[in-house]
Amino acid sequence: MTVRRYVTALLVLACLALVSSHDQHSPIDIQHYEDGKHNDAFDHAAILGSQEALDEFEKLAPSEAKRKLERIVHNMDLNKDDFVTQDELTPLGSSVIRVTQRRGTGPIMAHYDANGDDSVTWKEYLQKEHDYTLVKLETDRAKDDVDLAQTLQLVEENEMKFRAADVDKTGSLDLAEFAAFTHPYDYEHMHEFEVNMTLKAQDRNKDGSIDFTEYSDEEECNAGDVSEEDKVANQEQFDRHDKNKDGKLDRDEIRAWVLPNNQALAMEEAVHLIHETDSNRDGQLSMDEILDKYTLWVGSAAQTDTLHEEL
Ligand SMILES: *[C@@H]1O[C@H](CO)[C@@H](O)[C@H](O)[C@H]1NC(C)=O
């Protein structure tokens, strides 16, 4: 990996950190290709499954990174035939990522879990995140105070998200549930909530769908001045999302538009990794082939340091 590519990866990670501090999206949200160039950070994130794991790998010496990678690869090789195939790589999109995600979720959960019982109640979350007791929340809600409106709105959204994440309806989130609360995009059962949030933000006439005006106003807000060209592009985009061509985006169309298709992304990533790594072109990856291309699989800062010394 050249220094330039490494810097690109770091930039992408910096952007990712901004995004995830805002909304805790998983690394799989990083654009796979940027300006037509493949994004290494995406590969690394797909394999390691979390920003934390990625950061950790970046600090390792090459030999140590290879040793760790060897263990990861061994676990990927489900049928233990010493080869990693596309079938074994694709579930990365769900299971491996989920496992590492949960690991990364632990410390975040501990922050909210005031009584340390390995679950977070709404009361605990409300107190830590919004500095509210249930009683004070009720009092403030009754006040109808414009200065409180924004905070109360945020609390309400978090409460809905909390309820959606509380799958077994016990009123508290265990680690698996809390992972879905912090990474809603990656969990099917959180998608209804995400669609609700999109509608809330953009469905101004409250008809339960997003028409082109509502859609393009939002796009224009983000883009500032809009040229004729952009308008045409906007319309084309909208038409692509509007699968049944009724001039508005319904819930299913919104879902397909705003939520990543993790399965397709995982498959695409697997195909790419095999293409880049499979030196003898037998359609499967041996440990040697993977370790040969280990910088593609996991980054290593130490390697960049060596490069600096060479320059
Ligand atoms: C989404 O909105 C509908 C309609 O307002 C509501 O009935 C439903 O409970 C919401 N779902 C979630 C998960 O928040």
Automatic annotation (TrEMBL):
Signal peptide (residue range): 1-21
GO cellular component annotations of the record: endoplasmic reticulum lumen
Keywords: Calcium, Chaperone, Endoplasmic reticulum, Glycoprotein, Metal-binding, Repeat, Signal
UniProt-listed GO biological process terms: protein transport
Region listing for Disordered, in residue ranges: 215-246
Biased composition (Acidic residues): 215-228
Pfam family, one: EF-hand_7
Location in or out of the cell: Endoplasmic reticulum lumen
Molecular function, one GO term: calcium ion binding
Biased segments, Basic and acidic residues type: 229-246
Main location as per UniProt: endoplasmic reticulum
Subunit structure: Interacts with PCSK6 (immature form including the propeptide); probably involved in the maturation and the secretion of PCSK6.
Protein function: Probable molecular chaperone assisting protein biosynthesis and transport in the endoplasmic reticulum. Required for the proper biosynthesis and transport of pulmonary surfactant-associated protein A/SP-A, pulmonary surfactant-associated protein D/SP-D and the lipid transporter ABCA3. By regulating both the proper expression and the degradation through the endoplasmic reticulum-associated protein degradation pathway of these proteins plays a crucial role in pulmonary surfactant homeostasis. Has an anti-fibrotic activity by negatively regulating the secretion of type I and type III collagens.
Protein name: Reticulocalbin-3
Taxonomic placement: Eukaryota, Metazoa, Spiralia, Lophotrochozoa, Annelida
